Amino acid sequence: PMEGSDVFPGLGDGLLSPIARDFRLHRQTSDDGHYPGLGLGRGAADQSQRRLDEIERNADFWCNLVGISGAQPPQSRLGVASATGWGLSDVRETILEEFFDLTPERVVEVFNGLARGADGRISAEALGEGLRVCGLAGLDSSVPGRILEAVAPGCDGRLQPAEFETILSRLKLAQLLVGQPSYAAPARRLTVVDYDPRGSRVDCCSDVRLREFFFGHRPPPRTLVSPGVRWVHLANLDLTLLLSLTVKYSLHPLAVEDVIEQCRTKVDRYGDHFFAAVEQLSLEWPPRGDMPVQVRGSHISIFCSGPPNLDTVITVSQPDRSFSEDWPGYGSEQSAGGALGRPPCREASNDWVERLRRRVEAPLSRLKERKAHFLLIQVFDICTDELVMVTSAYTTRLAHLEAELQAEGARLPSSWLDEMSLIRLQLAVVMRRARGMLRALRQLDDPDIREDLHGYLRDITDHLDEAFDDASILVEKCGAIISGYERTVERQQDKARQVAGDRLNNTLFALTVITTVLMPLQLMAGIYGMNFVNLDGTPTIPELLWPRGYLIFWLCALGYLFVSCLAAAWLWKRIESKRKDDTVPETAMAPLGVMGRTVGPPSARISQRRAGI
Questions:
Q1: Burial status of residue 261 (CB atoms within 10 A of its CB: 0-12, 13-18, 19 or more)
Q2: Which residue did the predictor score with more confidence, 613 or 264?
Q3: Mind listing the pLDDT tens digit for each residue in 132-173?
Q4: What are 473-530's pLDDT values in tens digits?
Q5: Is the bond preceding 308 in cis, omega lying within 30 degrees of 0?
Q6: What's the pLDDT band for 613 if we cut at 50, 70, 90?
Q7: How many CB atoms within 10 Å of residue 106?
Q8: Contacts 24+ apart (CB under 8 A), 473-476
Q9: Is the four-CA dihedral 281, 242, 18, 372 of positive or negative sign?
Q10: Parallel, antiparallel, or unpaired: how do β-strands 190-196 and 273-283 relate?
């Protein structure tokens, strides 16, 4: 078996191409002492393989070859050292396929195209031309010869495909790692977790051990019954580390392009490994009903080695660059978070990483007894848990907003209605993300995975269906609450208009009564105020000549006013009594809380999902 570093072994053959794997399996599985295709006996093949393993681990040798050449690293063409600020189109055609395509098909194509001499051997000039075809231009003219001397191909002196792949991968790794800035910061983003039924171990790469990690090998499994699994996690995407992982594990350019450009949630299979991408939604902090729901978007990419090994998983998490445009109210939520003393999060959510590590490190974890594809399913399971908790947070928040509506009614500020409308739009995004994960799980229905994990896939699908249904019901609830608020405002406005109308009617009634009462007096004053006299100046109206005519006038006027006021009061009371009899009592607004309490995930299921059951 391959020998690895005791300090920091490499990742093994989980994602290596079939070319290198076949070369090593020939030595491990042949029973007759000969190796088909190599033309070597057991001893010669063992010696050649041990020498190849040693030269693969010799990072200084490969880095010195690149150092003396002064070749410009391919990623420098991007102009930056981080994928978060690229702004480069056609990255697959211009960068990945040109410089970092080490898929088995490409390696075989270039290897078969190398010029050979009459004896079938590949010269240093032919090797140099093959390296230039693979994007390793600018190497010193002495490098190909030194490589052929160090690699020391089989006893017959002919270069083998596995050796050619070693040359390509090690030179590209050296080109990526030589002359780069200090790796102290990005190296902390690379975490390696080894686990098997006997236990687990977590290592965080440092700048000192970074070369040893990429150039090293994983030791053989401690038990052949249940070989170990290695999980490599890259947090907050770094260009150099991503490309180094691409070279080390011969990742497909299409999958790496999806990591860089942050594709939608999907699952694909490229050759002998699976690739999955998840647009994750998670809560910024634990939900509280009296505060708006704060959601964070992350993009998770997963590479999983396929059968028969199923021993390696690579995950890459990064902030979702499209989240700011896709999530309604993103800017206002960030401002609200700052106002509450909570700075906006610019990093990807790694809570799922900690939860997955706890599952791996649990003493009786079944995860350690299974292969890599079960870890892939666990990532989907945790992302589903996060989505369920998001819907639960919206259920709690809507219940609080509904209680405010019942308590305040139309006195609620306009921000209340704005938040309700925003929640309805945000829940539509939650539903779209849930549909994407359901579609990805259907794509993951591969025979190599379905055979062992069908029950787990069905469980995740059920929870996604529940989250989708809960979100859709919450959207309908938002519409019902908004309609209730609009009805409350409309009733309040109708009541205000009615009060204004009643006030106007009362004023007109009073003016009418006063006018009606005073009109007879005005008539009498007009009649007796006319100056009709005889020739001698004596008034012709007899009442004006009465000795007590003025007193009699006032007595009549006051009596009339008294009787008129009594009649007006009686008429007012009769009208008010009839109005009260004709008025329909206002019915209290139907409690929307009944619907709110029956909407959303049951509390028992939520508590179980949060506990990771």
A1: middle
A2: 264
A3: 888 887 788 888 888 888 885 554 557 888 888 888 889 888
A4: 999 999 999 998 888 888 888 888 988 988 898 889 889 888 888 888 888 888 888 8
A5: yes
A6: very low
A7: 19
A8: 473/599, 473/600, 474/391, 474/394, 474/395, 474/398, 474/423, 474/427, 474/599, 474/600, 475/424, 475/427, 475/428, 475/431
A9: negative
A10: unpaired
Q: Is 300 in a helix, a strand, or coil?
A: strand
What is the signed CA dihedral for 318, 274, 214, 143, rounded to 10 degrees? Answer: -120
| Residue 186 to residue 163: CA distance in whole angstroms | 30
pLDDT of 435:
95
* Terminal Cα distance for the chain, rounded: 39
User: Which two three-digit tokens encode residue 254?
Assistant: 């299409």
CA distance 342 to 284: 10
Could you give the CA distance from residue 318 to residue 260 in angstroms, rounded to a whole number? Answer: 10
* Torsions phi, psi for 58 (to 5 deg): -80, 85
pLDDT tens, residue by residue, 352-406: 999 999 988 888 888 888 888 899 999 999 999 999 999 999 999 999 999 999 8
Residue 283 amino acid letter: L
Distances (CA, A) of 308 to 439, 451, 453: 26, 13, 16
Alpha helices by DSSP H, 291-371: 323-326, 330-339, 351-361
Query: Which of 10-19, 232-241, 391-400, 574-583 holds the top average pLDDT?
Result: 391-400
| 134 Cβ neighbours under 8 A, 6+ residues apart | 99, 101, 106, 110, 168
In angstroms, rounded to a whole number, what is the distance separating the alpha carbons of residues 381 and 35?
44
Phi, psi of 347 (to 5 degrees): -105, 160
- Identify the band that residue 206 occupies on the pLDDT scale cut at 50, 70 and 90: low
CB-CB contact of 214 with 113 (8 Å): no
Average pLDDT, stretch 98-104?
Answer: 82
- HEC readout, 169-238: HHHHHHHHHCCCCCCHHHHCCEEEEEEECCEEEEEECCCCCHHHHHHCCCCCCCCCCCCCEEEEEEECCC
Predicted confidence at residue 264, as pLDDT, reads 93
Cβ neighbors of 323 (< 8 A, separation 6 or more) are 296, 297, 330
In this structure, what are the phi and psi dihedrals at residue 192, rounded to the nearest 5 degrees? -120, 125
**Residue 305 pLDDT > 50:** yes
